[in-house]
Design goal:
This protein is 45% helix and 14% strand. The protein is α/β, with parallel strands linked by helices. The structure holds manganese (II) ion.
């Protein structure tokens, strides 16, 4: 996109953000504030931006990390309220505006939705709904919920700008940086922060764990996952040995370029991994790609509060956040190994592939993303993971960046889930749903139908992304 068009689309977004800012400002003194944020890196970064703003204004609030509610839980939420409140949904809500209307708006609550997932438009006197899709922007790639929340609070409080780096953490957590580049509103926001010196940028090795042992950083690397290296301590030690180092070596002892070459010399597809490993590093007091990975890992391990505390600067959480990240990496690595061994359980249809995976529901989406990025799963069709979760099945879907822009997995999941009494949503390239277990077959056949309809209508242009 040209600079001019970019600026005008950001302007449009900022106008809508200004309306949300006004709405928020008008309500916060009068109503109790209840925040529901998605428990991933983006949701946590969004909630920290809003929470910091509310603290500055001495406004008390309650913050809960949750996934999308679904109709039943939303009704329960509405029924459990003794007072009328200001309910704020961060990094979620877009896929369930109709439910929010029926259970919250029509029972007298005020609602703010700040979300970049695809959703239906809704206008209501008691609602402020900020969603880039509604102003013609691709929320999956061009801006995160943290970026949107930043646009809102920065308008109301200039000092919030020093927390602009949280918008970068949200975008990185949602994989909105493609081949080392941001696009759309992200690109402009990041450029502004660089110009103002609020964030710095250098080029270097994009491994996580710069403050810890080099062996751990290599051995537990899942973003990127290094085939043959991640999870293989022996090989990691031999890479260190090649550089004249032992297991006690730290990041600071090594020349990053030499380390890169040593890693690549052991990689099956060095040119592909060079692009994944070497690139821009945004930083201020911390490295933002690391912050995003750690926050995402804590979220996936169902410890979003740890991610929140760490991002808020609580240094007592350093050890717990990092050990949670390693725990998460171990789980992902063993799940990847499981997938590698069970590749024949992958079911193929002309428009998608799907498989049941034995992981926690919260990890399924990340597992698919890593499997596609690293080539463990073939990437030219949408891939669906099915995870048993009580009486329901959690469904995660991903479309690889390298796949053609023929599918909108968020819409396909949302529509097929709805038909079987479930709920779902997401972006073009990443989505999730919960469905009743006994309706799986109908769900899968509907999903296949929607995806083939999309692939016929959309032809073969463009490149898909993920958020
Ligand atoms: Mn998000």
């Amino acid at each position: 996109m040209r600079e001019k068009e970019l600026l005008s689309s950001l302007n449009k977004l900022e106008q809508t953000a200004a309306e949300t800012a006004d709405f928020l400002l008008e309500k916060i003194g009068k109503l109790e504030v209840e925040i529901f944020a998605h428990g991933d890196a983006d949701g946590v970064a969004s909630s920290l931006l809003l929470a910091t703003f509310l603290r500055l204004r001495d406004v008390p609030f309650r913050l809960t990390f949750t996934g999308p509610f679904g109709a039943k839980d939303m009704i329960r939420l509405a029924e459990s309220q003794e007072k009328k409140k200001l309910m704020v949904f961060l990094d979620q809500g877009g896929s369930e505006v109709d439910t929010i209307q029926r259970s919250l708006l029509e029972t007298g609550h005020q609602v703010v939705i700040i979300d970049h997932h695809q959703g239906q438009p809704l206008t209501h006197a008691s609602l402020s709904y900020l969603n880039p899709h509604l102003v013609g922007m691709d929320g999956g790639l061009e801006i995160s919920a943290a970026g949107l929340t930043y646009l809102v609070v920065e308008r109301l409080e200039r000092s919030m700008r020093r927390l602009g780096w949280l918008a970068v953490v949200g975008a990185l957590g949602d994989r909105q940086e493609i081949d080392g580049r941001f696009i759309g509103a992200n690109q402009l926001l990041v450029q502004r922060m660089l110009d103002e010196g609020l964030v710095k940028k250098k080029t270097g090795l994009r491994l996580t764990g710069r403050n810890g042992s080099l062996l751990n950083a290599l051995c537990y690397s899942v973003k990127p996952y290094l085939p043959g290296i991640s999870g293989n301590e022996e090989l990691c030690l031999s890479i260190l040995k090649q550089l004249g180092l032992d297991r006690s070596a730290t990041f600071h002892q090594v020349d990053e370029e030499k380390l890169l070459e040593a890693i690549l010399s052991r990689c099956p597809d060095p040119e592909k991994f060079r692009k994944m490993l070497w690139g821009p590093l945004y930083h201020n007091h911390r490295y933002l790609h690391e912050e995003a990975i750690i926050a995402q890992a804590c979220g996936m391990m169902e410890r979003p509060a740890v991610a929140f505390g760490r991002l808020a600067g609580d240094s007592s959480l350093e050890t717990l956040a990092w050990s949670t990240t390693l725990e998460y990496a171990k789980k992902i690595l063993s799940a990847l190994q499981w997938i590698s061994f069970h590749r024949d359980s992958l079911k193929n249809t002309p428009v998608m592939r799907y498989l049941h995976v034995p992981v926690e529901a919260s990890m399924a989406g990340e597992l698919l993303s890593v499997s596609l990025e690293s080539g463990i799963l073939p990437s030219e069709l949408p891939v669906i993971a099915l995870v048993d979760s009580g009486t329901q099945i959690k469904v995660s879907g991903r479309v690889s960046h390298t796949a053609q822009k023929r599918y909108n997995i968020g819409v396909a999941l949302s529509m097929s889930a709805r038909i079987v009494g479930g709920a779902g949503g997401g972006h073009e390239a990443a989505g999730a749903a919960y469905i009743p277990k006994n309706k799986l077959d109908i769900f899968l056949s509907k999903l296949e139908e929607f995806l083939s309809g999309q692939s016929e209508n959309r032809g073969e242009t463009g490149v898909a992304g993920e958020g």
